[in-house]
Structure formats: structure tokens, C-alpha cells
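User: Is it possible to get a 3D structure for a protein together with its bound compound? The compound here is S-adenosylmethionine. I've pasted both below.
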Amino acid sequence: MTSSFNVHNAAGYEQLMGRWSQRLATPFIDFAGLADGEKILDVGCGTGSLTFALARAADLSEIAAIDYSPVFVEEAIRRNTDPRINIRQADACALPFADGAFDRALALLVLHFVPEAGKAVAEMRRVVRPGGVVAAAVWDHLGGMPGMRMMVDTVAALSEGGRQLRARYCFQPMMRPGEMKRTFVEEGLADVTETQLMIRMDYRNFDDYWAPIAAGEGPLGKYVATLDAAGRARVDAAMRDAYEAGQPDGPRSFANVAWACRGIVP
Ligand SMILES: C[S@@+](CC[C@H](N)C(=O)[O-])C[C@H]1O[C@@H](n2cnc3c(N)ncnc32)[C@H](O)[C@@H]1O
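Assistant: Yes, that's possible. Here is the predicted structure of the complex:
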């Protein structure tokens, strides 16, 4: 298996994550660096949060974007109006590009869904020229994502299936401190640095938070979709209670931390 990501539909993804990955794209680009005239590869572009932010951030000569999911590739192509951007379906572990074809390869919120993440890093290194940059960011589900942690802790208290979801979710690939840095070094990248990037996720009310998960989007939505009617009703009620936290329904804001790593191709 080359991807553990669960795609339901593109609009649901936007509400679950795309609106926040657009926010994270700016500090990630600042960390990865960018210069006018460069050729950039966006690995795991999804619906295009990073792709379109790259196009706005510098006068690039070309942006190639790939994703494993045909649903997301179709949506990103539908949104694209920039002739410098080329989007296609491909696997991060077998990139369809020549050695040294790019100045930088970037992956935003992708490597934690790639079971063989080291292979993807090796491929990103291969397609970047010597002196170019490979950079990636993944969420810290265990220690840096309180809004989603609230969901997995709540379902873990309700059932064994929920406990298993939490164990999987908190320890996806590349999420442990230093794990991505070690992988970059093992794959032969030089001057490797790891940092943390923080954004807030601001929800209008419980429905704004819960609707995409309730509709089956992402890894947490996939779990909810497995529940029977009684289990589902218990989870819905417990999640509302956790979100409201003893106050009337309304806006809630959560700080979220991503690990980000960058290395130079020797
Ligand atoms: C959380 S989304 C991030 C999408 C986008 N980069 C963003 O920040 O909004 C994870 C993406 O990784 C993609 N993905 C997972 N495994 C992949 C693989 N082996 N090759 C290419 N894309 C992959 C998924 O299809 C999905 O679009």
C-alpha cells in the first residue's frame, strides 16, 4: 500500500483540512525557501493548497504537482488557471520525473500518509538538482493537534475500536520528535534542519468542526463511518459535549503544530 489517506470528496476535504493547509502553506514556504525563476515540485498536492500558494509566492518558471488520489487531481486541475502549473496523478514513491529536474521538492501534510515515507523522501531527493532543497511538513497528531486529539480521546473512552483508532492516529509515520529529520539524513540529504510550525484552526461552531468528519472525510471520518447507529449517536453526543466544554455552542480556536524538515541535495 502506497497511501493510507482516505478521500471522500474534495469539498469535504476543504472543510476538514484544505482551509487550514492553505494557512500552513505560508509558513511552510517561508521555511522551505523559494526564489524567482525556480522549478518546484509539490508532492501530494491534494486540492492545491500549497500549489496555488507557491504560484502566488514567487515568480516561478514551473510548478509540477502530483497526487495519488484521482479525485483530488481532478479538483486541483479544475481550479487551476495558471499555465505554469502542471498537475497529474502519480505516486510519491515512484515520481515520474527525471533526476535533478527541480530546484525544490515540497510535501505539505503528505508523508504521514505514506507507509514507506523514506521511499518518498528518496524520490524527492532524486528529482531535485544538487544544491536544491527537499522539504516536508506533517502534523504532530499526538502532541500538537488538540482539536483532533479531542476526537480520538473521546472515542477511545467509548470503545476498544476508538482506542485502536487513537493508537494509529497518534503514531502515523514521521510524527515522532526527530523522526523526519532522521529519515532525511538516512536518505542522504545534507544540512538537515527540523522545526515546528504553528497555525490556529478557528471553527464557527460545532457543526463547522464536526460536519466533515461526520460525513466520512479523512482518517477520523473513516472511523465514524464504521459505527452502527447506536455507536454513532453516542459519538455524536460525546463530541458535541467535548467541543462545547460546558459553554454554549459557538466559535472555538485550536493551536496546531506541524513538524517541518528541510535538507539540501548534496
Ligand atoms: C492531508 S492531504 C494534503 C494535501 C495538500 N498537500 C494539502 O496540504 O492540502 C494528504 C495528501 O497526500 C496524498 N498522498 C498520500 N499518499 C500519497 C502517495 N503515495 N503519493 C502521492 N500522494 C499521496 C493524498 O492523496 C492527499 O491528497
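Residues 38 and 60 are 5 Å apart (CA to CA). The first helix runs from residue 10 to 32.
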